[in-house]
Structures are given as structure tokens and as C-alpha cells.
Specification:
This protein is 45% helix and 13% strand. It contains 14 helices and twelve strands. The strands form four sheets. The chain has a five-stranded mixed beta sheet. A three-stranded antiparallel beta sheet has the order 10-11-12, with no helix packed on it. A two-stranded antiparallel ribbon has the order 1-2. The longest helix is centred in the N-terminal third of the chain and has 34 residues. It starts with 17 loop residues before the first helix and ends in a 16-residue tail after the last strand.
Length: 407
């Protein structure tokens, strides 16, 4: 049984705790950051108005203000320019986001994620701003960043096939000199292949039991495979390892060509023709078909021989990430944890399983943090200070029924 938390000892009711002061200080910092953005924009606008009276000076306005801000704040001009760009976007284009930040309903990081994400789009509708702002006000920055990426990808789906084709035409491999006898070998290629290559390197590296770090082993395997074109130097058990990539395709899209775009985990939307190719008979791809209206899973492709392995895949797919508050470690690099411990009567089923990275797995079992399973695969974390954080999975496991749909 966990011992009582030292954080909540002897604190009279109604008196702010140390953690309360931490949160209060952070909120004040956010409010001040919003005011800083507004003042920078005002300074910039004043400089622009003054420059209109001197045509020769107008082209130097931005550079002048950037140097002014950098010098006053004792930061680099690059950092000052970033403040100017984000500030103008918030004050001029997304005032509702600035307003939310000025009340500490979102953090400075949430605001910059919104600016960076929405500025990728040619047209930003008011409804879209409201959608991302509502998410920002309830989600930690890590999951929120991924949510914004999905929303931006969704908005860009209409032209994805054409844009992907243009991007593929620009694929290349380059070598750039480094230092200390090293160099950078970079390949610009389709994201599906890039993730698959990295996945295979990781899978092989994980089987090599020696003193090298995972990064070192990945780099060595990368060189061995490309230079020798063979895997004879590797153990027999790891030859032929192939990556597994999850492709999520709305069933209606796959069958008719209409509907939402296909998605590759960790990559984003891909053209329908590419999705059809991957959803063929190719091995190593976990095919997930979803209902066009509800988004629930209809199929995970070929069945696994051992049910536990299939269950692990489904639980990891549902969560996508470590299910600790704000953690962004991919589920395929996490432990699958029993929320209610097996030795304490917990069951091995989807309602009691969730991926946790090794660090958060250890923290759950050896500290005063308490974790409770909630419907839909969510986890409720209660901190030693008594604060509650609800972590929701990124997808839903299907609920099948024989009852006819309501009319």
C-alpha cells in the first residue's frame, strides 16, 4: 500500500499549496507573455506608421524592430523575429486565441502550436480556429500538437494526391560534411518508406545485445545494410525483419474513392492509390478499416495466431502514445501495462490494458500516483498532490452489436 503523499501533509483547507503557487505563477507568466506579444505588435505597428513617411526606411522596418526587441530582451534576433511573427499572427489573425491566452486558458506553447499549424493552410475558417482553440483549452501540449497536425492534414486532404506527387518528384539523397571525420547522409523520400526504414533499423538494432546505444546500433545496421547489401553479419533470428506500419483507411474511401483520406500512423494522410497498394496482400502492414461515420474499427487485416499478441496490437493502436499525462512516446515503444495489477485481481483485457513508457510504468508502480481505468480506454491519473488528469486514447475500439440501428 502506498504511503501518504508528503505533498499534501498538514495543509489547512483553503490555503494554497506549493503546487497551487506553481500553477498560479505559470498562469501569470502566460498572461504576461500574451501582453508581451501585444506590445511587440504595437511597437511594430508604430514603426510601420512612422516609416510610411520615409519611403527609403520602410524596407528596414521589420529588421529594425527585430533588433530593437532582441537588444531590449537580451535575446537573439532569430528569437525576437519569432516573437514578432507569432505575436502578429495572434493579435491580427487569431484574436480569439490571443484572448484565451491572455486569460491563461491556454499556454504560450499552445498558442504557438496553433499559429504554426494554421499558418500552413491557405484559408483558415473561423470554425477551424474555434475547433483547435477548444482542444487547446483541454489538452496537454504534446497530444494537442498531434491533434492540430491531424486537423491540418484533414483540411489539406483535397489536394494531397497532387501535392504528394509533386513532392515525390523532388526525392533525393545527399551527403553533407560534418566534423571530426563524420558526415550527414540524408534522404528525402516518401514518409511511409522513411518510417518503415527507421522501423526496420530499430527492430534489428533491438536484437543486438552489446554495449552500444540504440542510436549507435541503428547507425551501424544502416551502414551494414547499404554498404554490404546483406545481413550475414547479423544473427539468423533477425534476418528478414520487416517493419510494421499501421494504415487506417475508412472503408467507404477504400471501396468507392469517396470519403476521408487514408492515414499512416505517425505520418498523416496518404493518397488513396498508395493506400490501396498498401492494403493489398503485402505482409508487414496492419490494415485497419474504419466505419465512415463513427470511425470505429471494422477490421485489422489478417488475424494473429496468438490472441495476446493481437490484443497488444489493438491496445497500442487505440492509444497511439504512452497513456501518461502529456507523454508523446509512441505506443510501439511502450510496455503494455495492467491498470489494475494482475496480482491484485486485474484482468488481461482491453479495458484493463494501456501502453506506458518505461519511465511512467515505473512511476505508476513505485510512487503515490494512482491510475484508474475509465470507459473507452481513458486513464485517470491522480497525482500525489491530489490533482486529477484524464488521458484519452487517440482512437476507439469498436463496439459491435446485433441490435438494429435506431431510426
Amino acid at each position: 500500500m502506498s504511503s501518504p503523499s508528503p505533498y499534501v501533509d498538514e495543509v489547512p483547507e483553503g490555503i494554497p499549496t506549493t503546487l497551487d503557487w506553481v500553477v498560479l505563477s505559470a498562469d501569470m507568466a502566460t498572461i504576461h507573455a500574451a501582453q508581451r506579444y501585444a506590445c511587440i505588435v504595437e511597437l511594430w505597428d508604430d514603426a510601420i506608421r512612422a516609416a510610411t513617411r520615409d519611403e527609403g526606411a520602410s524596407v528596414l522596418v521589420e529588421r529594425s524592430v527585430r533588433l530593437e526587441v532582441a537588444s531590449a530582451l537580451r535575446i537573439s534576433e532569430h528569437a525576437a523575429g519569432r516573437l514578432m511573427v507569432v505575436g502578429r499572427a495572434l493579435v491580427k489573425r487569431y484574436p480569439a486565441v490571443w484572448e484565451s491566452m491572455s486569460h491563461a486558458d491556454i499556454t504560450d506553447t499552445h498558442a504557438t502550436i496553433i499559429v504554426d499549424g494554421l499558418d500552413e493552410l491557405e484559408i483558415v475558417r473561423d470554425e477551424l480556429v474555434r475547433e483547435v482553440l477548444a482542444l487547446a483549452e483541454e489538452m496537454p501540449t504534446g497530444p494537442f500538437r498531434r491533434a492540430v497536425k491531424r486537423i491540418v492534414d484533414r483540411e489539406r486532404e483535397a489536394t494531397i494526391a497532387e501535392r504528394h506527387s509533386d513532392a515525390v518528384a523532388r526525392r533525393h539523397v545527399r551527403v553533407e560534411p560534418g566534423v571530426d571525420g563524420m558526415a550527414w547522409l540524408t534522404a528525402h523520400l516518401p514518409a511511409v518508406e522513411a518510417h518503415a526504414i527507421h522501423g526496420r533499423l530499430t527492430a534489428i538494432a533491438n536484437t543486438l545485445d552489446d554495449e552500444r546505444s540504440l542510436d549507435q546500433k541503428r547507425a551501424d545496421v544502416f551502414g551494414d545494410l547499404l554498404i554490404d547489401g546483406e545481413t550475414e553479419s547479423l544473427p539468423d533470428t533477425v534476418r528478414g525483419i520487416r517493419p510494421t506500419v499501421t494504415v487506417t483507411v475508412p472503408a467507404l474511401t477504400l471501396l468507392t474513392g469517396d470519403g476521408s483520406a487514408a492515414q499512416v500512423d505517425g505520418v498523416g494522410p496518404i493518397p488513396l492509390d498508395r493506400a490501396r497498394e498498401l492494403c493489398g496482400a503485402a505482409s508487414g502492414w496492419m490494415r485497419v478499416l474504419t466505419h465512415p461515420d463513427t470511425g470505429v474499427v471494422l477490421s485489422v487485416g489478417r488475424e494473429q495466431y496468438r490472441p495476446p499478441a493481437d490484443l497488444r496490437r489493438l491496445v497500442a493502436w487505440r492509444a497511439a502514445r504512452c497513456m501518461a499525462p502529456g507523454c508523446g512516446i509512441p505506443a510501439d515503444r511502450c510496455d503494455i501495462d495492467h491498470t489494475v495489477d494482475w496480482h491484485h485481481g486485474g484482468h488481461t483485457d482491453a479495458t484493463n490494458l494501456a501502453p506506458l513508457c518505461r519511465g511512467h510504468h515505473t512511476l505508476k508502480h513505485h510512487t503515490d500516483w494512482q491510475v484508474t481505468a475509465k470507459p473507452g480506454g481513458a486513464l485517470e491519473w491522480t497525482s500525489p498532490a491530489g490533482r486529477i488528469y484524464l488521458v484519452k486514447p487517440e482512437r476507439r475500439i469498436p463496439q459491435f452489436t446485433t441490435d438494429p440501428p435506431p431510426f
